[in-house]
Amino acid sequence: MKEFIVKHKQYLLSGVSFAIPFIACGGILIAAAIAFAPMGPTGPDFSNSPKLKLILDIGSTSFKLMLPVLAGYISYAIAGKPGLVAGFIGGFLSGEINAGFLGALLAGILAGHIVNLIKTLPVPKILKPVMPILIIPIISSLAIGLLMLKVIGLPIANFMVFLGEWLKGLSAGNAVVLAVLLGAMIAFDMGGPVNKAAFFFGAAMIKEGNAFVMGSVAAAICTPPLGMGLATLLGRKMWNEDEKEAGVAALGMGLMGITEGAIPFAASDPFRVIPCIMVGSITAAVVAMLGKAQDHAPHGGPIVLPVVDNKIIYIIAILCGAFVTAILMNLVKKIITAKKGA
């Protein structure tokens, strides 16, 4: 079992190493566009800024490519070149069905193992030369496509509807409980369906005249990338050079409210990173809710400060969440390192 886990962690790291440039490029371009765009009532307004909109579109394209690249190279690490096509298709479909980066991780792993399974099938000698370039890509792509569209996609869609209705039922209840749930959801899949359910709920509540919910969501949104970037600064010796570079990019994305900046860390070590960033985002959301921070624009991070009420509390909430994430993450890293050295 331990060998299985170690192998799959290496597969994930392989996919992450190829995806990081796409995340960094897309995140920085999107952050730059948002930073210079005027803030309208519904977030950054690009209607009179065609050049900034162009930069935003290019950055968004890089982000969209991130999921196929992540899944494609996870599959490649498992099955070699024959796994690329199914992996890329699975990753692309993960974006189409709003399964996010967790869906892409699953797609990459499934695609790689499906390809390896097909490789073991007995075939006539005449077909062997075309197996890796034709037969395997076609069969594996059909298999992963059917899984993503017919098996994984429907439950995710139903889950999204359930989450939306569930949050509506909670909105009139305990504000702290709601903040805890929203903070956890925002960090859980960093731009995936659970994150978006929390975000759109917060945005919908602005229209209902309740900007407190979006205040909590907005503080939680930027905490994962800021926290992970801060962790690489506070514990330099515990992080490798690639992780330090990803940390710098994460800080920039966090300032602009781009949760996806934490994906390189979560994708390479999901079982340790995701709980840490969830605790940090919960902290930020709860502090913002208790301090009655209100965000009147459907966006998050320090970039929306001009449209936030109780600005000092909002900043304190973000700082608390980021430091909790960083300290917790480095503590976990330290414990793991100590165990390996023992």
Percent of residues in β-strands: under 5%
Characterize the largest beta sheet: strand count, sense, and whether it forms a barrel: 2 strands, antiparallel
Count of helical regions: 12
- Evaluate the radius of gyration: 21 Å
Gap from first CA to last CA: 21 Å
Q: How many structural domains are formed by the residues?
A: 2
- Helical content class: over 70%
The beta-strand count equals 4
Order of helices and strands: HEEHHHHHHHHHHEEH
Overall pLDDT: 88
Pairing-aware structural class of the strands and helices? mainly alpha
Task: Give start-end ranges of low-pLDDT stretches.
Answer: none
Overall geometry comes to: globular
Q: Main sheet: which strands, in order across?
A: 1-2
What does the model show?
This protein is mainly α. The chain folds into 2 domains: 1-165, no CATH class; 171-342, no CATH class. Helix content is 77%, strand content 2%. It contains 12 helices and 4 strands. It has a two-stranded antiparallel ribbon with strand order 1-2. The chain has a two-stranded antiparallel sheet with strand order 3-4. Helix 1 packs parallel to helix 9 (241-255), helix 2 packs across helix 3 (84-96) and helix 3 runs antiparallel to helix 4. The longest helix is centred in the middle third of the chain and has 40 residues, at 131-170. The chain is globular, with a radius of gyration of 21 Å. It starts with a helix and ends with a helix.
